[in-house]
Amino acid sequence: MTSADKVSNFNIANAVTILRLLLVPLFIWVFLDADTAHRWAAAAIFFIAAATDKLDGHLARSRGLITDFGKLADSIADKALVAAALILLSTHSMLWWWVTILMLARELGITLMRMALVRKEVMAAGRGGKLKMVLQVFFILGLLIPWRSFLPSVLATACEWITWGMVAGALILSLLSAAEYVRDAIRISRTQS
């Protein structure tokens, strides 16, 4: 029995994770319409959900509340939130579909690869993957915020260019971190269990 098995699933860290899971359908419902008011509301919900990702991890580590359920639910909540945002941004023509498809294909491929190798070794998230996630959160927020509704044109344009720079950075890190995962997967698959 591992230490994760001894901790009750009914704890504050898992409650925060479940809250994030529940925010995903609310985010989708709000962002089905892309007018200014809905974009602000969707950005607020997305921000809260993204912030709870750090909170539940901190609570779990600092209070010894790490559970297998929490690890799984946390990963599902992260992927569901980002996938929903990317798909809806593309649906509203705010993000190119090829970017969404590439990022979602990367996530699916890495997840399947990690699941296939889990019996030999757990593949932890690398620094590139974590930084990619941070850039994704910030560029999604940047695309959700209707900059032109409250900023002068020059500042709004600057914010939009910064956002697109983060999109490019997240794409590059997606590819680089995927290559790292593949390299690690090859190493793991060649080792004897």
| Distance from first to last alpha carbon | 21 Å
Radius of gyration: 18 Å
Count of alpha/pi helices: 7
Global shape: globular
Mean of residue pLDDT values: 88
Oligomeric organization of the protein chains: single chain
| Structure classification | mainly alpha
The low-pLDDT segments are none
For the sheet with most strands, the description reads: none
What is this entry, summarized?
79% of the residues lie in helices and 0% in strands. The protein has 193 residues and is mostly helical.
Describe this structure in words.
The chain is mainly alpha-helical. It contains seven helices and no strands. It has helices at 3-6, 12-31, 36-62, 68-91, 97-117, 127-144, 153-190. Helix 4 crosses helix 6 and helix 6 packs antiparallel against helix 7 (153-190). The two termini are 21 Å apart. The mean pLDDT is 88.
Task: Compile the SSE list and pairings.
Blueprint: H1 3-6, H2 12-31, H3 36-62, H4 68-91, H5 97-117, H6 127-144, H7 153-190
Helix pairs in contact: 2-3, 2-4, 3-4, 3-6, 4-5, 4-6, 5-7, 6-7
Keywords:
single chain, 193 residues, mainly alpha, 0% strand, globular
